[in-house]
Every structure is written in structure tokens, then in C-alpha cells.
């Protein structure tokens, strides 16, 4: 478990200790041991929270994204134009959108991503996006944190 107080997510996971252990190992690696910069990681996570209406995920990661310099207006841009973002961030935004909405990623989006990121970074980014899509679906399905009835992350 994370040091300090337990989050509502931790409490939900503790219904299965074995799963909680694996979950924390996997997501601890994504959060703390990849080569991705904080802005790229948090941009992807927050975009997933917006797309999947995962308020708890948004509340946990939006402050981290802001601290890392992610422009919230660009993050919330549904037209995927990435206003206020760097070219690298815009490429990540498109990649995150396609992975989250379509699963398959267009060749154009993938080629654009390769302009800015190494193979290792693309693998780490893909695992981050896939993993945090899992997180958002878990949170929303179980209404973790009892936040689904509140204003969603998109608003």
C-alpha cells in the first residue's frame, strides 16, 4: 500500500489482498519507475479520467498534472487540438484518446508519437494508458469514493 492514509481506492482493493498487492506493485512501477516525464504521465492519466468520467481519478491526478505544467484547457479540449500544449503533449493526447476510445491506434498517430518518444517510452506510455483505463473502469464501476453522483471530471 501507499505510505500514509489509505485512499478509497486502497480500501476497495483490500477486499482482495492478493490483487491489491499486485495492483500496487504494477501501478507503483508506472508512477515511480518509468522514464516518462511527469507532464506526459499525468497528461495521459488525466485525459483518461476525463474521457471515462472517473472523478476520483481526476481528483487524485489533476493537481499532479498542474504541478507538472500540463495546461488544463488543452487537456479538456475534446476536439483534440491540444491548445496550449507542446507538440509532444499533443501527440500523447491523440494517442491517449485513440487508445481509450478505439483501442486501435491509427498509423498517423503512431508515427507522430515516434517523432518524440523512444521505443521504451512508447511501451511505458502504452502501459500507463492501458493501466489507467483499468483504474478508471474499476473506480467508476464500483463508484469508489462515492463520487459518481458529483460533477464529473469532464465538467
Automatic annotation (TrEMBL):
Residues 18-73 form the Carboxymuconolactone decarboxylase-like domain. GO terms for molecular function: peroxiredoxin activity. InterPro entries: AhpD-like (IPR029032), CMD-like (IPR003779). It holds the Pfam family CMD. SUPFAM superfamilies: AhpD-like (SSF69118). Gene3D superfamilies: AhpD-like (1.20.1290.10). PANTHER family: 4-CARBOXYMUCONOLACTONE DECARBOXYLASE FAMILY PROTEIN (AFU_ORTHOLOGUE AFUA_6G11590) (PTHR34846). This is Carboxymuconolactone decarboxylase-like domain-containing protein. It comes from Talaromyces rugulosus. The lineage of its organism: Eukaryota, Fungi, Dikarya, Ascomycota, Pezizomycotina.
Amino acid at each position: 500500500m501507499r505510505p500514509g492514509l489509505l485512499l478509497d481506492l486502497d480500501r476497495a482493493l483490500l477486499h482482495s489482498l492478493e490483487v491489491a498487492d499486485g495492483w500496487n506493485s504494477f501501478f507503483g512501477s508506472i508512477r515511480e519507475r518509468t522514464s516518462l516525464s511527469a507532464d506526459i504521465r499525468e497528461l495521459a492519466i488525466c485525459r483518461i479520467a476525463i474521457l471515462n468520467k472517473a472523478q476520483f481519478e481526476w481528483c487524485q491526478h489533476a493537481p499532479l498534472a498542474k504541478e507538472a505544467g500540463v495546461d488544463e484547457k488543452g487537456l479538456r479540449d475534446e476536439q483534440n487540438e491540444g491548445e496550449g500544449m507542446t507538440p509532444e503533449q499533443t501527440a500523447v493526447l491523440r494517442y491517449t484518446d485513440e487508445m481509450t476510445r478505439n483501442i486501435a491506434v491509427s498509423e498517423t498517430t503512431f508515427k507522430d508519437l515516434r517523432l518524440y518518444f523512444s521505443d521504451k517510452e512508447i511501451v511505458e506510455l502504452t502501459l500507463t494508458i492501458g493501466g489507467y483505463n483499468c483504474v478508471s473502469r474499476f473506480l467508476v464501476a464500483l463508484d469508489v469514493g462515492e463520487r459518481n453522483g458529483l460533477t464529473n471530471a469532464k465538467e
